Amino acid sequence: MKRLGALLGIAAIAILSGCAAKAPNYNPNPESAQKLQAARVQPAAVGDFTADANVSNTSIGLRASTMVPEQGTFSKYLADAIKNELDLVKLYSPSSTTVISGMLMKNDMNTGVAMTGEGAIEARFVVKRDGVVRFDKLKKAAIQWDTNYFGAIAIPRARSEYSRLVQTLVAELFSDPDFVAALK
Amino acid sequence: MSLLRRYASLLCALLLAACAHPISLAPNLTKLDPPASVARPGTVGLYVSAADKERQVITPGGGGDKVSYYPYRELEAGIYKTLGSVYERVIVVASPTDVDALTKAGVSMVARPQIITQSSSSSLLTWPPTDFQIQLSCTFADVGGTAIAETLVTGVGHADFGEFKSDFSLAAKRAAEDALNKTQKAILAEKKLK
């Protein structure tokens, strides 16, 4: 009976460690989105977000585990992040002729071994109004966090940091005066 | 060597047991209840202190393990959205008592949340919590600091192994969505907040 319990325990841990687990829900930063509200920009729609062929767009390896986006792709995760931020301050309008689209150019997470985990993300953002390009720039973000030797801690910690990585990228975009001007 | 291995294994087990597995309460904001049919006029200032945003909470998981998370940081956007679903405008404020700044920003009322959480698991083998509770209270005061009303709700979330094996935070997220939806209803029902 004890052996069966131990085997079940090992199986459960193996399943939890080796399974593909979902990326966390994107957590908007009200202070970041509020800057757009204060700038009195026009509501915008969110268009297509694609990914460069070399980018980890459907899954990211985290040691023995895998992180996958609920949306199916991380480019869609980024699109939904922009949408959530705009919606938070009532600046999202699917019918707007101002459309934000983008391409994911880099999307890396590394749990590290014992000291520091790292994440890096890059995306090209384009704003068009009535089909005319008003903004077209590459934005980058990188974060670090305290990792752990044990995968049972390091993997979920890295996973939970992904939202912060995307949040940092979105904050970079929203604080760009050219982006704000493109939305006015 | 055998004795050394035993001590090394014991040390690893002790170290692992002392650590808490990180999870995230951040809800899926698209799953929150739709806005009230008519937005109430005015601007509500949402105040969450920097200390609260950095506050990490550790509560029980399964198998004797624990889970860790940042409730204020992870629920702030949800609370912001919930307030925005009732009121015309919501802004984050840096201070709940700076009357000049609040007045200049057009704030008519300040909301301050307090969050108390608890978690548990019916599993002896896996660490993600199967049950999560979030007690969310919001105190509302005018810009002068005079209390207007308070809402208090408890959100609950449950997830079984078959559900949480691909999303370890699932019970917590469900509790967050439940707490925020109940908060919206509580605000709408509170006569002093009309």
What does the model show?
The complex is a heterodimer of chains A (184) and B (194). Chain A has 184 residues and is of the alpha/beta class. Chain A has one domain (21-183): Rossmann fold. Chain A is built from 5 helices and 7 strands, in the order H-E-H-E-E-E-H-E-E-E-H-H. Chain A has helices spanning 2-18, 30-38, 74-88, 151-174, 177-183, and strands spanning 20-22, 45-51, 60-62, 65-68, 98-110, 116-129, 132-146. Chain A has a 4-stranded mixed β-sheet with strand order 2-5-6-7. A 3-stranded mixed β-sheet of chain A has the order 1-4-3. Chain A is elongated and about 50 Å long. Chain A starts with a helix and ends with a helix. The model of chain A has no long low-confidence stretch (mean pLDDT 90). In chain B, strand 3 (57-60) and strand 4 (66-69) form a beta hairpin. Chain B has helices at residues 2-18, 50-53, 71-84, 99-104, 161-164, 170-189, and strands at residues 20-22, 40-46, 57-60, 66-69, 87-92, 107-120, 131-141, 147-158. Chain B has one domain (2-193): Rossmann fold (3-Layer(aba) Sandwich). In chain B, helix 3 (71-84) packs parallel to helix 6. Chain B is built from 6 helices and 8 strands, in the order αββαββαβαβββαα. The radius of gyration of chain B is 20 Å and the shape is elongated. The mean pLDDT of chain B is 91. By secondary structure, chain B is an alpha/beta fold. Chain A binds chain B through residues 8-9, 12-13, 15-16, 19-22, 24-31, 34, 37, 84, 87-90, 148, 150, 152-153, 156-157, 159-160, 163, and chain B through 12, 15-16, 19-24, 26-30, 46, 63, 73-74, 76-77, 80-81, 84, 90-92, 123-128, 161, 165-169, 173.
